[in-house]
Amino acid sequence: MLVEVNSDEQLVALLGSPGFLINVGYINRAVKIHSMRCKYCDPRRKIGVKPSSKRLNKTGEFWYSQNRNDVNSKANEIATERGYNRSLCAVCNP
Ligand SMILES: [Zn+2]
C-alpha cells in the first residue's frame, strides 16, 4: 500500500522497513525513487530528505511503499501528469 510521508518523524519511523521512497520535487520538477536503505532517506542526516520542510514550504511530497509496482506506478503517474523527470537514485540503485 502506498502512503504519503508528511513529516520527518513519519519517515524516521519507516527507516528500518523494507521498501521504497518516492521523492517529488516541485522546483526541479523531478521524481526520484530510493531504496529505504539509502542514506538520503534519513532526515536526521544533513544530506537526508526533509518531508516536514518540503510540506511546509510546498516544495515537494514523498510517498512510501514496500511494493515496487505501487512505487513505479505512482512515480510514472506523477511524471506523466506533471511532465516531471523520473529517475532512480544513483547512490542506492533501487
Ligand atoms: Zn537513494
How would you describe this structure to a colleague?
With 94 residues, the protein is α+β, with helices and mostly antiparallel strands. The protein is built from three helices and five strands, in the order βαββαβαβ. Strands 1-4-2-3-5 form a five-stranded mixed beta sheet. It is globular. The structure holds zinc ion (ZN). The site of zinc ion has 6 residues, from loops.
Largest sheet: 5 strands, mixed
Biggest sheet, strands in spatial order?
1-4-2-3-5
Query: With helices defined by DSSP (H or I, 4 residues minimum), what is the helix count?
Result: 3
Strand runs, count:
5
The rounded distance between the terminal residues' Cα atoms is 18 Å
Oligomer: single chain
Small molecules bound in the structure, each named once: zinc ion
Instruction: Give the class from helix and strand content and strand pairing.
Output: alpha+beta
Order of helices and strands: EHEEHEHE
Mean pLDDT: 97
Domain unit count:
1
Give Rg in angstroms: 12 Å
How much of the sequence lies in strands comes to 25-35%
Helical content class? 25-40%
The parts where pLDDT drops under 50 for at least 5 residues are none
What is the molecular shape? globular
In short:
With 94 residues, the protein is α+β, with helices and mostly antiparallel strands. The chain has helices at residues 8-14, 51-57, 68-82, and strands spanning 3-5, 20-25, 30-35, 60-65, 85-88. It has one domain.
